[in-house]
Every structure is written in C-alpha cells, then in structure tokens.
Specification:
The chain has 62 residues and is mainly alpha-helical. It has a single domain, classed as Helix Hairpins, CATH 1.10.287. Helix content is 81%, strand content 0%. The protein has three helices and no strands. Helix 2 (11-33) packs antiparallel against helix 3. It is elongated and about 40 Å long.
Amino acid sequence: MKLQEMREKSAEELQNAITDWKKDLFNYKLQLSTNKLENTALISKTKKLIAQAKTILKQKEV
C-alpha cells in the first residue's frame, strides 16, 4: 500500500490494516524460526508499513 492510499483511508481502516499487518508479521517470524520463510525482506517491509500507518494516524489526530 502506498502512502497516498494510506492517507486517503479513515482512521478505523488504518487500525484494521495495522492489526492485519501485525498478524502477518507474527506469521513471518514463525516461518523464519522454522526456516520456511523464503523472502526474509517481507519482515522489514511489514514493519515499515506498520510504522508508516501509525505515523499517519498520529498526523490525523493533530
């Protein structure tokens, strides 16, 4: 998801997206620990998405 798309979403939609990304991140970490994750870049990309969404939420509060 691009930053512009995130900015267009409502706060509730962003919260739902963050929850989904956190679930994905947890699954990626489990797969990594069992050596089943082929693309390890998914972990850092998911963390980045979560951080961006949280930043946009804070900006919308102000």
